[in-house]
Design brief:
With about 160 residues, the protein is of the alpha+beta class. It is built from four helices and eight strands, in the order E-E-H-H-E-E-E-E-H-E-H-E. Strands 1, 2, 3, 4, 5, 6, 7 and 8 form an eight-stranded mixed β-sheet that branches. The radius of gyration is 15 Å and the shape is globular. It starts with a strand and ends with a strand.
Length: about 160
């Protein structure tokens, strides 16, 4: 069984620009989001061998509140409208879990990683939460997901006491 870390960060204003193709997720994004999730997790520490159907089920569970109520207006997806076949390339999805904001997923397409999409998406989400008078964001990360742990630490996340 994978060990997970629960982390939290105080929300403070982040300096970050808007992305021209960032937008609020829509229920119609379910298939594209499942494809993004499957591609992003394949071969990583978080890959549990999910089928496309299982991944779509997880996205539908997210949309239906299975991970807490999805904060649609705070969350964002980025589409690659310049691609021959439009697709989602990044997603930062926040829910309300136990009456507190929880980063449920931050996902970036493998061919788009290391370009700052996850960092900027998280910063924009944190700004939106802060503007709505939230004071903290929590998340859960798999121990050993070195890239994610480093990103979260650089954004001020620490282990929850």
């Amino acid at each position: 069984m994978r060990k997970r870390r629960v982390m939290r960060a105080p929300l403070r204003r982040q300096t970050v620009g808007e992305h021209p193709r960032a937008r609020v997720p829509q229920p119609s994004d379910a298939d594209a989001l499942a494809t993004l999730m499957l591609q992003a997790y394949r071969g990583t520490i978080d890959d549990e061998g999910e089928t496309p159907e299982e991944t779509l089920g997880a996205v539908q569970q997210l949309f239906e509140g299975g991970f807490g109520a999805l904060l649609w207006a705070v969350s964002e997806v980025i589409d690659d409208s310049d691609a021959a076949a439009p697709r989602l390339i990044s997603a930062t999805l926040v829910t309300l879990w136990e009456d507190r904001p929880l980063l449920a997923f931050t996902i970036t397409a493998p061919d788009q990683q290391r370009q700052g999409l996850a960092r900027a998406g998280m910063q924009r989400v944190m700004n939106r939460l802060r503007a709505g008078d939230e004071s903290e964001l929590r998340l859960v990360v798999t121990r050993g997901n070195v890239a994610a742990e480093a990103l979260y630490a650089s954004l001020g996340f620490v282990d929850e006491a």
